[in-house]
Amino acid sequence: MRVLVVEDDVTLAAGLVEGLEREGFQVDHLGAAEPAEGALGLTAYDLAIVDIGLPGIDGLELIRRVRRRGVLTPVLILTARDGLDDRVVGLDVGGDDYLVKPFLLPELLARVRALIRRSRAAASLVLTVGALSLDVQRHSASLGGGELELTGREWDVLEQLALAVPRVVAKQKLADSLSQWDKEITPNAVEIYVSRLRAKLAGSGVGIRTVRGIGYRIEVEAADGPAR
Ligand code: CA
């Protein structure tokens, strides 16, 4: 994982770089905003650590500029200032979290890990199969751009199928995922939810195919006929 540190305090920067490298991160360090703006536009960093008080353009303006350019890299803001304003403004311009100096390295590393985890989750938690899209965080589904209403059980089955694409999901595994709703769900009961989902997906180009003796697979249907 690659991290960019934008910090003009040479001693602090050296400590950050060393601490992050010891944790296995690949670290680049820049002492000013202008080169950092270029670097963030060119390199897909997993995270940027940005000091607000930089010579020339400050860290807030740097964040504002890269966000305006569509850079989504999570940003951890470092601020020496005590004012609440800086922190609020920092988050407003597109920072994701902040840390007030002085801080301990373990605290910084914990924030870094949390931010990277959060951004990865946010990036990967919309599952798409053809016209079907499942937002796992919001628990909402859409089909062809419109909202698709699902019961809790239907959602669970559909989520399992969408997570597995292009693999087949065993009927028993689907039954297990439903056990939080019903203690006595049998593999055969799964068929009921699959048939309800098929009805809701009808005509969308997305189908649930039965793989005999194994389970089900969700897929984009061929133009010449529905999945069976
Ligand atoms: Ca500084």
Architecture overview:
This protein has 228 residues and is an alpha/beta fold. The protein has 2 domains: 2-122, Response regulator (Rossmann fold); 126-220, Winged helix-like DNA-binding domain superfamily/Winged helix DNA-binding domain (Arc Repressor Mutant, subunit A). It contains 8 helices and 12 strands. It is elongated, with a radius of gyration of 24 Å. 29% of the residues are buried. The model has no long low-confidence stretch (mean pLDDT 88). The site of calcium ion has 5 residues, from loops. Calcium ion (CA) binds at residues 8-9, 51, 53-54.
Nutshell version of this structure?
This protein has helices spanning 10-22, 33-42, 59-68, 84-92, 105-124, 152-164, 171-178, 187-201; strands at residues 2-6, 26-30, 47-51, 75-79, 97-100, 126-129, 132-135, 140-143, 146-148, 169-170, 206-211, 215-220. It is α/β, with parallel strands linked by helices and 228 residues long.
The geometry reads as elongated
Percent in helix: 40-55%
What's the order of the H and E elements? EHEHEHEHEHEEEEHEHHEE
- Overall pLDDT score: 88
Total domain count: 2
Which kinds of small molecule does this entry bind, naming each only once?
calcium ion
Cα distance, first to last residue? 43 Å
Task: Say how many strands there are.
Answer: 12
Largest β-sheet summary: 5 strands, parallel
CATH class of the largest domain: Alpha Beta
Q: Can you tell me the CATH superfamily of the largest domain?
A: Response regulator
- The name of the CATH architecture of the largest domain is 3-Layer(aba) Sandwich
Number of distinct helices: 8
| Class by SSE composition | alpha/beta
Q: Give the radius of gyration.
A: 24 Å
CATH topology of the largest domain: Rossmann fold
Strand arrangement within the widest β-sheet reads: 2-1-3-4-5
What percent of residues are in strands? 15-25%
Q: Residue ranges: pLDDT <50 for 5 or more in a row?
A: none
